[in-house]
Each structure stands twice: as C-alpha cells, then as structure tokens.
# Entry
Amino acid sequence: LAVLLAPPLLVVAALLYAAQGGRVLVREPAAGLAGRPFLTWRLRTDGAGRLGAALRRCALDGVPQLLNVLRGEMSLVGPRPEPRTDRADRLLVRPGMTGLWQVSARSDLPWEEMALLDRHYVESHWLGMDLAILAQTPRAACRHRRS
# Structure
C-alpha cells in the first residue's frame, strides 16, 4: 500500500511545497498502545489554499501516517490518535488511521458519542469489523466534514 501511494504522495508533496514552501511533513505527539508516546506524521496543509483544504476535507493529509503503521506505532483501523488521553480503554489498542466513528459520522458527532464508538470498537473489534471499516473509509472520507 505504501509503495502504491508513494508516487502520488510525492506529487502532492511537490504541489504543497510550491504552494506554501517550507516543510511538507509535520509530526504531532500522540499516545499509543499502553500510553506509549510517539509522533504521528501528517502533510502540512494549513498554508496551501484550496489544495490544502481539499486534502483536509478528504482526510488525505493523514496518508503519511502509513509510516506510523509500518513502524508498528499505529494500525490501519483503531481509535483516532490523540496527544494524550484519560480514557484507559483507548490505550488497549493501537490508534488507527481510520476508525468506527470516522466512518459513522466524523466530526458531526458530539464528543461523548465518538467516545462511545471508540469504546465499542475497543471492546468488540475483529478482522471482519476492520475490513468493513476499511471498505467504508474512502466513501466516508469525502462525504463528511473534516474530523
């Protein structure tokens, strides 16, 4: 997957660099499995105008998190990575690039409902659920507002 996405990601990175200059990738702190801290990778899109807005709207600014997946810090599916959390249930699994609440409603849900969906995922996830979430992610990514 990372190999397939590398060429288009390089093109997007070049366009972002042309639009805003400076660094194209940024790292953000997150709490991983068992609370272990790590840095997530994202495309820096804040000064990239329409291109940056389109990337954020379709959640493509998070594609570099595949590096975190390859390093074992994240999973493809799981609760969204947060800088730190007081919810112990989220620390039982690796954070994911996509998850149950992202395909359910993204940022349209109140925080409490997002937390319930995260808890449901942690308590009942299995391969079939992960595959269903992965299948729904592309359609859901551009259907909803930015999470």
